[in-house]
Specification:
Elements lengths: L21 H4 L3 H33 L4 H50 L3 H6 L2 H43 L1 H47 L2 H6 L3 H53 L5 H42 L23 E8 L10 E8 L4 E5 L6 H8 L7 E6 L2 E2 L5 H6 L1 E4 L10 H6 L7 H10 L3 H4 L19 H15 L3 E5 L7 H15 L3 E5 L11 E6 L2 E6 L1 H7 L2 H10 L2
Parallel strand pairs: 3-8, 3-9, 6-7, 7-8
Antiparallel strand pairs: 1-2, 1-4, 4-5, 9-10
Helix pairs in contact: 2-3, 2-5, 2-9, 3-5, 3-9, 5-6, 5-9, 6-8, 6-9, 8-9, 13-15, 15-16
Length: 592
């Protein structure tokens, strides 16, 4: 295990990154419109408050009939406050609803898209990094869409409104202040760009730490058996330390940005307030107008301060949006046909033809995993694939499932080339029992049902009995409804394998792929499962990968592979007579 940096592309952030979220906002135009409407109304009532305050001072306090007008103006102030409360509450609800819904849609879309990627994608992309983007980055998006963006727009409207009112009441003075504020924009933008770059880097470092944690936790038995806990803890500490260092740089830059905006805007606006106070002393304005000016100055200063904070959040969210869109726009290397063919479902098993197939894994382009491979499997045949480790046996299975496409040659299933067949239809025709049985976090029943989600309970129980899994499942605390734990930690290797076999039997495909399907079983269990598989293989085509030659002696045909090439073909007796590679493997295993 090595420290691997983020493997997905990390392009330079662009200012319009948040526009990537627009497709996810369009379905909710009505709620978005309502949120915008209540945002405008909340900002408008906030801007109306200083005007009501001016009327209270000038007409409710300074006028001769102040006692008659005082109650009226206080009622006006209360009505403004009540309207602000209602509009703000409605704005908060609709904006929060949008944040939750849009974030869920983004998370679902990215997850569904990642699941459709070919294995080549996962050869170069760490699972922990994908998980980090699905959790940490979507949380940042939720914060912005459900809070920061609304707050920023509200304060932008209030700031512009307050500025317009100040210019209207004292245009010459506020134009001076506005000129100073314009000079603040350029350094703010420069600092903002640095914050954004550091935000992206900080999120990448967090993803690196998540990738390390995911890798180690998935291999915890190996880590503990080698007493590597201290080593892995130190490796994780170093990764998190890098993340903390980058985050602190981002925090420092963002602090400078916020402090600079607050200081410069406050200085400019205090100058305007000072000039307004002098105007009252000279009698060129009223006390109410000064009070109105004071509140508008406070609104303007606070709006700029909040905008500085929101700008930092937007920069972080923009980086998160870019990272998520990279996943969403990742393209599979498998080209899907525009007009897929759907061959008839074979009643007696599928036929398979491989024409001069050559394939190299993207991560090892210099070494062919399969080289000029040509063979044929008739419907209903059982073909065993044997050979030394690394000969390319599992690669044949990967090509049949179209996890990859051959670099040269073609593969036909039921007379149709795989790239011309509907991908879902192709994989629906194939059942596989892998060497390492995969058990999902759920019940025994759910794990078997995975093979055919619409199967009845009777069909699930029948599949379990056929795989001889029924005998141990019934002994579990809740039988078929027993939770098996993450990756089936409550089961033995043989029990996990029998559930995997039951899952494949339930799917009932015309082509069955067995990759060392009995490797984890003891002698007694192996005999039972071999008998069950013999029944399951009737009426369908079966390809079997096995290192133990005792499991393939009854195969119709045996393919012998070496260094990716097909070197021998025949049945057990014929291959022994040829005294080739198969005979040597048999001699090593059987001792003669």
């Amino acid at each position: 295990m090595t420290d691997t940096p983020s493997s997905l592309p990390t392009p330079k952030p662009t200012p319009g990154a948040l526009s990537m979220l627009l497709p996810f906002l369009r379905p909710y135009r009505l709620r978005l419109t309502l949120a915008g409407l209540f945002l405008l109304l909340a900002a408008g009532t906030t801007l109306a408050f200083p005007w009501a305050l001016r009327m209270l001072i000038d007409q409710g306090l300074a006028s001769p009939d102040a006692s008659d007008q005082l109650v009226v103006h206080f009622v006006e102030l209360f009505l403004v406050a009540a309207a602000l409360a209602v509009f703000s509450a409605l704005r908060f609800y609709f904006v929060t609803w949008l944040g939750e819904r849009v974030t869920a849609d983004i998370r679902n879309a990215v997850y569904a898209h990642v699941l459709r990627q070919s294995p080549s994608f996962f050869e170069t992309t760490q699972t922990g990094e994908v998980l980090s983007r699905l959790t940490n980055d979507t949380t940042l998006i939720q914060t912005v869409v459900g809070s920061s963006l609304s707050m920023g727009l509200r304060n932008l409207i209030m700031g512009l409104g307050a500025l317009a009112m100040l210019i209207w009441t004292n245009p010459f003075l506020m134009l001076q202040v506005l000129a100073v504020l314009v000079l603040v924009v350029w350094p703010s933008v420069m600092l903002g760009r640095r914050v954004r770059r550091l935000s992206r880097a900080s999120q990448d470092r967090v993803a690196d730490a998540s990738a390390i944690a995911s890798e180690v936790l998935n291999a915890i038995p190996v880590v503990q058996s080698y007493n590597a806990q201290a080593k892995e803890t130190q490796r994780f500490k170093m990764s998190t330390q890098q993340a903390v260092g980058t985050a602190l740089k981002r925090a420092k830059a963002r602090s400078l940005l916020v402090g600079f905006i607050i200081l410069t805007t406050s200085a400019a606006l205090l100058w305007g307030l000072y000039q307004g106070t002098l105007a009252v002393q000279h009698g060129t304005t009223t006390a109410g107008e000064l009070g109105q000016t004071v509140v508008y100055v406070i609104l303007l200063a606070s709006a700029f301060a909040v905008l500085g904070e929101v700008y930092g959040d937007l920069l972080r969210a923009a980086g998160a949006a870019e990272r998520l869109m990279e996943l969403l726009h990742a393209e599979s290397d498998l080209l899907l046909p525009r007009h897929p063919q759907h061959p008839a479902w074979p009643a007696a098993g599928s036929s398979v033809v491989l024409h001069a197939v050559t394939f190299r894994y993207p991560s090892r382009p210099e070494l062919p995993a399969v080289k000029d491979f040509a063979a044929q499997v008739d419907a209903g045949q059982t073909v065993a694939i044997v050979g030394p480790s690394g000969a390319g046996k599992s690669t044949i299975f990967n090509l049949l499932l179209r996890f990859h496409d051959p670099d040269q040659g073609e593969i036909l299933l039921d007379g149709v080339a795989l790239p011309k067949m509907d991908l879902h239809d192709l994989r629906q025709r194939i059942g596989i029992v892998p060497q390492d049985a995969v058990i999902f976090s759920g019940t025994a029943y759910d794990n078997i049902l995975y093979g055919q989600p619409d199967a009845s309970r009777e069909q699930v129980l029948a599949a379990a009995k056929a795989a001889f899994a029924d005998e141990f499942i019934e002994k579990l605390p809740q039988g078929y409804d027993t939770f098996l734990g993450e990756r089936g930690v409550r089961l033995s290797g043989g029990q996990r394998q029998r559930i995997s076999i039951a899952r494949a039997i339930l799917k009932n495909p015309p082509l069955l792929l067995l990759d060392e399907a009995t490797s984890a079983l003891d002698t007694h269990s192996e005999r039972m499962v071999q008998a069950a598989l013999s029944m399951a293989m009737k009426g369908r085509t079966t390809l079997v990968i096995a290192h133990r030659l005792s499991t393939v002696q009854r195969a119709d045909v045996i393919w012998v592979m070496e260094h990716g090439a097909l070197v021998e073909v025949g049945n057990h007796a014929q291959l022994l007579e040829r005294a080739g590679l198969y005979a040597n493997l048999a001699a090593l295993q059987f001792g003669n």
